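To whoever picks this up:

The parser on our side crashed when reading a file containing two proteins. I've narrowed it down to the boundary between the first structure block and the second sequence. Both blocks are reproduced below exactly, byte for byte. First block:
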Amino acid sequence: MKAFRGAAIAIVFFGLLAALPSFDLAHWAINMLIFTLMFAVMSSAWNIVGGFAGYPSLGHAAFFGIGAYAEGLWFAHHSVTSGYEPFWALPVIGLLGAVLGLPIAAVAMRTRADVFAIVTITLLFVTQTLAFNLHGITGGAQGLALPQPPFSGAGFDRPFYYVLLVLLAVVMAVTYAIMRTKVGLSLVVIRADEDKARGIGVRTTGIKLLAFALSVGFTAMVGAVWGYYEGFIYPQFAIDPLITIAIVLMTFLGGRATLWGPVIGAFILESAQQYLAYQLGGSQVYLIAYALVFLLIMLLLPRGILPTVQDMIRRRSRARVVAAGLSTPRTAPGAPVPTTEGGHL
């Protein structure tokens, strides 16, 4: 029953999102949804390693930038006719991000907790420095231009929207599969106590590397879509620490180590940020409102939205069960029990 309810929620959720572009939404609304989907995918991907495994990576923006520049390098060796060709390169770019992430994870995951976070954010700044200085590959501070997608003006955003929607479905399906297998159980045990996990036979190194590779692979694919959508890649935007901070906040806001938590957090925070930016313009005042939205929710729901709501539902269910038990009339020991016919057993 629980699995059926979850499947029904997923069908309604993705069905509604798939139908939204057909309502002739304004360009700014579609643009807002595109960036919301980007962060929903990246938050769900970060949740695999930062939520389930408990390794708070702060370097994911580096792989976002790697994906964007990989898309730019793809254009250097391929021509575009229909405009959809770059999307077919996404699995390869995701694989590239995962392969590059494996040796980095093998070194970084020898540390834990705050030390791991420092190591990964150092990776971010090293990658950003390389992007500024490798002029032959990245264009340096002048940026890297990508060809304009040959899509019609009215439907220009739709291909990007649907590709990101598919990526969100895939990363959530992967997360669901992880939660239902020994991999997910192993990640939870590692997060609770890695030494004990190793002691009971969990292959901690392989599980951690798998989680990190999956996480950064999806992040690289989102970076590739972003680069193609924007049409111009600058190092300070492609490898921006604020990207990592945003996806971490969204994951914690919605509820880490849950399936829907990162998606909920992304739809609240990124939608609010994009809407406030459109309404308040370039004055940066929207950042204050954005921070207030986040702080208000975190003060009211410190464990994240989904876990807090689930706890409230459980407490109310237990309270109803207890109330029902107390209201049930009790029969004294040895007393006859009445039947529906008015007689006795």
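<<boundary where parser fails>>
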Amino acid sequence: MSIKKNYDKKNDKSDYKNLKAIRDANKKALVFVMSFIICGLGIIIFLFYYFFYSDLEKAKNKDEELYFAVLFIDESDIPYGAYVGVISSLHNRIGIIGLPKNLALWKNKKEANIPITKLYETGGRREVFKAIEITTGKKITYKITVNNNQISDIVDLIGGTRMYIEEPINEENLSFDIGEWIFYGNKVLAYLHYLTMAGYEEIETLYRLEDIIINSMIGIIQNPELKNIMLSKDMREKIASKMKSNLRPPDIKILFDILANSSERTLVVEAIDANINERGLLTPIFEGSALIKQLDDLALYVGLKTQKSELETEDVSLIVLNGTGIGGLADRISIRMRYRGFKAGEYGNFSVNNLNESVVLIRNGQIEKSFIVAKECRINKVYAKTDRRLLNNAVLILGKDYYEITR
């Protein structure tokens, strides 16, 4: 009898162990299946987010603007400038504000501001972008870093950048006479280092960078073939690979669509309102509140729903220079430009007097103003030659082809 009871107890224990083993196995299987499903869903969501979702597309549907920042790094891994900007994919416009490398930003409003170069030295690109966010009070959706070698590669990919040289340059790696030239990658880098304003090296480097950006944009605006190239997936991937950013394929496609449909109103470049504070640091005025207002105003511009320009000829301050050798021509054309509404007060002679083709130069990043002058004067040659120390928006350089020259 006792033997049977012991046998039954052993069977019960064995059955219990078997049931427990089955339950444990079922639990593990369920955990595995659930984990597999969750991981699968996670991968699907990530792939959808990475390859199909775009904050730009979302903002376009809501008619909103997005903020971004671009940091430029030289060959020595030192920042030489940055831009903070706002973009509207719905209205096909981009506005950017230049930030010199010696500009001091706040990484914490309770502490003193720190120059961009120092921020990068201590915390890298993340620290710089964080300081831009805190200083501007804006969420920076897209953060892009480009070094000089990558700039060189990008310029070569788009077939070079057309530049205009006002005064001869005779440097070891940069030698050009007055006139129009195509700058390829190596020349672009030499141009960035070509500085002539003693004591203003930081801001002049940003001017040269602005020249490259705006002249590249003007090249796209005026070249239908290049616009078509910008639509190709191959070009998008090649250029995107030259930047370090959190841009994803759908973001890049929308950005290139903007470039492919660009006009003289697509891009505007502004300089930051800043001055030297009591610590000797270049600082956004009014503790950064002026920069916030500047970005807000820029957002209003890129969000304009009308495609018609709100600018008139009276909004353009113009210098007229005579490059023909014909006596008194700049004076006569300056008077005519005033009759047409331009603020054309200054005039004089260009440094050469046998210029064949007339040219319009933009001084301060307002591309649209230069095209207003060019269209009024029937000129196709438009270039950026930035110098924000000057008060005029644009320069009209008269060549022998100018249509109002008496034959």
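After patching the parser it read the second block fine. Residues 1-52 form one domain. DSSP finds twelve helices and 19 strands in the chain.
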